[in-house]
Amino acid sequence: ASGYGTQSVRLGKDAIKDFDCCCLSLQPCQDPVVTPDGYLYEKQAILEYILHQKTEIAKKMKAYEKQKQALKSNNQLESKSEERQKVERFKTSENSIVSKPINPFTSGQKKDSEVSSSGEPVSAGPATTSSQSLPSFWIPSLTPEAKPALLKKP
């Protein structure tokens, strides 16, 4: 009774394009161009579409180049930090070669292990779990960092 779902309601006047209207702008054509398949376009609408696409591609290309430069600078920073780490590891290994001077006033006992007041040696528990902790999505400081999606070359 409401007419819902009937052919006249589904295909109203707004759903059907006039014969002399451009397929891009949906306005009556002033300078029409017809494709071999029978689609009608206006020259001005085609040129505006091409210019719009050209500017969009230029924007995407600029963003891609910016991303490319950022990745290049990040790679350079990482390589420099790796070199610094190698130098630091080398320095620490070279410093550990030199033996520590022996203090003649101490006995031969090593004081590396601690002894509790009851006389029992205190063993270090398991390693701290801060380096082994899993990322938490509920605590902002522990959330994993999301990397931005890489852009493809347009």
Topology, please?
Blueprint: H1 7-10, E1 32-34, E2 40-42, H2 43-97, E3 114-115, E4 121-122
Provide tags for this entry.
Znf-NOSIP; two-stranded antiparallel ribbon; elongated; 2 helices; two-stranded antiparallel sheet; 4 strands; 154 residues; nucleus; Nitric oxide synthase-interacting protein; NOSIP
Describe the largest sheet: 2 strands, antiparallel
The structural class is: mainly alpha
* Distance linking N and C termini: 53 Å
Number of helices: 2
What is the typical, i.e. mean, pLDDT?
Answer: 76
What radius of gyration results from the CA coordinates?
37 Å
Approximately how much helix is present in the residues? Answer: 25-40%
Count the strands?
4
Order of helices and strands: HEEHEE
Question: Can you tell me the residue ranges where pLDDT is under 50 for at least 5 consecutive residues?
Answer: 111-116, 120-130
Name the shape in a single word. elongated
Residue fraction in strands: 5-15%
For the largest sheet, list the strands in their spatial order: 1-2
Family: Belongs to the NOSIP family.
Region (Disordered): 68-140
Biased composition (Polar residues): 93-108, 115-135
Biased composition (Basic and acidic residues): 79-92
What does this structure look like?
There is one protein chain. This protein is mainly α and 154 residues long. Helices cover 38% and strands 6% of the residues. The chain contains 2 helices and 4 strands. The strands form 2 sheets. A two-stranded antiparallel sheet has the order 1-2. Strands 3-4 form a two-stranded antiparallel sheet. A hairpin with a 5-residue loop joins strand 3 and strand 4. The longest helix is centred in the middle third of the chain and has 55 residues, at 43-97. The chain starts with 6 loop residues before the first helix and ends in a 32-residue tail after the last strand. 1% of the residues are buried. Residues 111-116 and 120-130 have low confidence and may be disordered.
